[in-house]
Amino acid sequence: MTGRYTGLARRRRDGGGGPDTRRAPVLVALEDPGLVDAVAMTVAATGRRLVRADELSAVGGLVVVTDAVEPEVPDVPGPVRVVRVTGEPGAADVAGSGDAVPIQIPEGTQELAAAVGTHDPLEIAVSGVVGGAGTSVFAAALAGAVAEPGPDGTDGPGQALLVDADPLSPAGHLRVLLGAEGQEERDVTWVGDVGLVEAGGAAGTVGAAGERYTASPACPVVRDCGRGAVTDLPATVTARVLVVPQTVPAVLAARHLVAADGGVHVVLRELPRSGLTWNQTVSLLGRTPTVTWEDDPFLTVDVDRGDFRTTGRSAGTAATAAVRLLEQIR
Predict the structure, then answer these.
(1) Which of the residues in the chain have pLDDT under 70?
(2) What are the boundaries of the region Disordered (predicted)?
(3) Which of 60, 136, 191, 206 has the CB geometry, 3.0–4.6 Å to 78, for a possible disulfide?
């Protein structure tokens, strides 16, 4: 994005008690110089940090405020929300600009503040403490749970993205998991309410770690990080999840990780034949797991037959654990 007035109000970013670095920053990319001051002051009032176009390599998610009819989406490692504004009185939506009517400035500054200040899309990173922990299965079930609307109908948009962020995973393994290997390859492959974003996606739209979510930036995102570190992630990640099989080596490996990062959520995957009792597991881990993923004797068969899905009975006990975890995260 190359608006001539990107981030002109950087001088304001440290005012008012300082910006909130936990939320996605804002890029102001405007062609109309008459909008800059009103937009910048409104963004500053939301507490979000303003960034310039040349600072995007250091951000995770991003909110873009622009007056472009067909705005370009910056290439950043995280979800991007685009908020369109206009200085033209009575402006209506035009062809190619999407469904959202641009917010008129200065009359709509309160509407702009609400749009910019709204919660960032939920983004959850799931890692496994060892290989074969069931990270992809749980991440898929969690994506299904995230896509479901909350009790009041506002917590879930009805869709979520499941991103392959594991550089060591075999190509297309999420497609195989969800029985979508026969579908045409595209940037996002939808299986029900869950969109699969694969590493090295079509036309280079998705980077090696599945960083871009341009197809539906307002969607919640679940990253399947494989055995990747749950601490090496953008600040915009809402929650970090570690899947831990109930074995002595896995629990001991997890102990060091959770000791270093008390904010990580632990999903304990039950393995009744491992010989570890609940009390022994808690003692070795050094803390109580956030949720327990109960043993599912049918899981392997369902995956092999292509019957695994992200919700309901087709996700088995993984879905139950995912719903319980989501209650702790939200």
Answers:
(1) 1-22, 60, 77-78, 90-100, 149-158, 200-218, 229-236
(2) 1-23
(3) 60
